[in-house]
Specification:
The protein has 14 helices and 9 strands. 52% of the residues lie in helices and 16% in strands.
Length: 389
């Protein structure tokens, strides 16, 4: 899981904070930046040139982040970092959804129902409000019990993974690591309930339910890799369009009319510098859910890629005008077919990734939709990938 391999990722990102995130920073007298996003909307947050992946993930897990955006004139030199960031976002969303599902099965368990019937003044339900500090106090000296519960939850899952002849050693390691990470990121409130009813009558129901959810999310975790490959492939396609267009303008007097200029290291550097000077960037954004209060949207991830020039207002008006005559909507398959018909770079790899991504999502009941908007007058492409975990 690549997001834990590097202490820092060197990428220029804009982190848009949720209402909870803004409140957290302001309460600590930390100044927030105001910046303009690719869609010309001004947001509050922090702009970073490098960041610790685990710190960013921690902010996502507590619902402090609503959107992450990156813009660069070229992505080839940062290919692995972009993929690491994309996987980090997807894994974070999976961890959050896992925690919500475990919470739901715990609260609906017979153990909790029995407790609530006998302790009307100390109900354990969705309205139960305990801070992390209160939970830590109540769970002081419970570390040995937590360890026992973890072992009991994971033992049959570990045995199944290790003895599964259909898995390669690498796949086994990935699954084993994922089970650890899922439980490591389980909220204190969930551990409080697990420990409270550990070994009590009916606890076997809780064990079985948690194991089933772990199995589901082990399978869902495969999607992170496919999404990261799809995102970088789309980014490189957008980058290639921008660079070819700029090359033809800059080297139109060359015999090759600039078509091959991007393959010459010196000319490529000149093209990238010119793209940066004119703000002809490719943008990628990851929009996370609908906030903790948006029922049914917590598990939503919208990834948007677009190439855009410096003319913000015209671009914004084009996007806002959904009935514009030059707006063409298509799905991702149609988009790739169009690229292929235009005689551009080979689209085989993108279609390959898309096929695996679509199949992986269907297997684990993740809803996946893609939509490509193209604005002929401005030669702009906006690609949306929407996932509901």
């Amino acid at each position: 899981m690549a997001q834990d391999k590097k202490a820092l990722l060197d990428l220029p990102i804009k982190v848009v904070l949720s209402e909870q995130g803004v409140s957290h920073f302001i309460s600590r007298n930390q100044k927030l930046a105001r910046f303009r996003m690719a869609d010309n909307v001004e947001e509050s947050g922090v702009a970073l040139t490098s960041f610790a992946p685990l710190s960013l993930q921690s902010m996502i897990l507590v619902d402090y982040i609503s959107k992450i955006e990156i813009s660069m004139p070229e992505f080839v030199s940062s290919r692995q970092e972009i993929m690491d960031l994309s996987k980090l976002v997807v894994y974070s969303l999976l961890y959050k959804q896992f925690d919500r599902e475990v919470r739901a099965v715990l609260l609906s368990s017979e153990c909790v129902h029995r407790w609530n019937r006998a302790n009307a003044a100390q109900l354990i339900d969705e309205k139960t409000a305990m801070t992390d500090a209160q939970l830590r106090t109540r769970m002081a000296n419970r570390a040995p019990l937590i360890k026992q519960a973890r072992t009991e939850i994971l033992r049959p899952i570990y045995d199944h993974i290790v003895n599964d002849a259909s898995l390669s050693p690498e796949e086994k390691n990935v699954y084993l690591l994922m089970t650890e990470k899922l439980l490591n990121r389980l909220s204190l409130f969930n551990w409080y309930i697990i420990v409270k009813f550990y070994k009590k009558d009916g606890f076997s129901e809780i064990l079985s339910s948690i194991r089933q959810i772990i199995q589901q999310y082990m399978e869902k975790s495969k999607i992170a890799e496919y999404i990261s490959l799809m995102v970088i492939e789309l980014a490189l396609n957008c980058e290639n369009v921008n660079m070819q267009k700029m090359a033809k303008d800059m080297f139109r007097d060359d015999d090759d009319e600039g078509v091959n200029a991007i393959f010459d290291p010196k000319k490529r550097k000149m093209i990238i510098d010119e793209l940066a000077a004119k703000h002809e960037f490719v943008y990628i954004s990851w929009k996370l859910g609908g906030g903790s209060l948006s029922i049914g949207k917590q598990g939503r991830l919208q990834i948007t890629l677009y190439n855009k020039s410096d003319e913000f207002q015209e671009f914004k008006e084009s996007i806002q005008n959904k009935t514009a005559a030059d707006l063409g909507k298509k799905n991702l398959i149609d988009f790739y077919n169009e690229l292929s018909n235009d005689g551009g770079a080979s689209t085989d790899l993108g279609l390959y990734y898309l096929s695996y991504l679509d199949e992986a999502c269907r297997k684990v009941n993740v809803k996946f939709e893609s939509l490509v908007n193209q604005f002929a007058a401005r030669d702009l492409t906006v690609i949306n990938l929407v996932f509901n975990f």
